[in-house]
What does this fold into?
Amino acid sequence: MRNLMSPLDFTTEELDRLFDLANDIEHNPGKYAHACEGKILATCFYEPSTRTRLSFESAMTRLGGRVIGFSDAASSSAAKGESVSDTIRVISCYADICAMRHPKEGAPMVAGEKSLIPVINAGDGGHQHPTQTLTDLLTIRSMKGRLNGFTIGLCGDLKFGRTVHSLINALVRYQDIKFIFISPEELKVPDYITDMLREKNIAYEEVIRLEDVMPKLDLLYMTRVQKERFFNEEDYIRLKDFYILNMDKLALAKEDMLVLHPLPRVNEISVEVDDDPRAAYFKQAQYGVFVRMALILTLLELA
Ligand code: CP
It folds into this structure.
């Protein structure tokens, strides 16, 4: 039995197979419409979500399986003090696979150790968000045709952003990737990440102004400044609109640059950008369903 806690749990060869499967599902959905008949996915979400929970539910439904779960810790027995370990032992009696989101870093891993069914980390605090990373990689591979030879700008909350941490960890395994980290001083990427990049001799630079680096980028990964990760409201208010990607800034970018965003967005991308062919974030959300379908099939050993 296999869990997914980090994108590094799969080798790059396994990821290639997963993405090939996701692309096949995209083009031949009928082939997979009954693949999970009789199987049940449990979605255990202790933190809010739109995309991750509903794309998992959509994925299992499109595979012919069924879904149970909760979307709020307050409506589960966590509100009565039940531990994640006990919850997963019980969920193991009800479902065949579980996707879990939790505000505490490492909680899905604790669940995975006690579970009798595969557990997927659907986001744990500011730590990892592996299925978002699978979504990001599939989007890049499908729209650019490769996962190497890029300059990628990551912009916004690089300190608390679990999607950013997961994506960097995953991309360092590909050739010829250069990172440009664009953030205010207070939201810089953690030292453990820059230490790791230096150790691996991977090129990166850290800047404050998006405009200064826009012409160099092949990919721009925008992120939201996350209100829920701040300890005081004053800092959040000061930083929340630090970056707003609008058409004036996008005019500085390459014609074929892709704008990615894990979503939800608040103000960091103006809605006018949505109609630009470089805006890939809604397509990215759609790839999230295909890759989660491929992941469910793989972890249930049905692929
Ligand atoms: N990208 C993402 O994780 O979105 P949700 O928080 O809506 O699941």
User: Anything to note?
Assistant: The longest strand covers residues 40-45. The pocket of phosphoric acid mono(formamide)ester is lined by residues 49-52, 123, 132, 262-264 (CB under 6 Å). The radius of gyration is 19 Å. The mean pLDDT is 95.
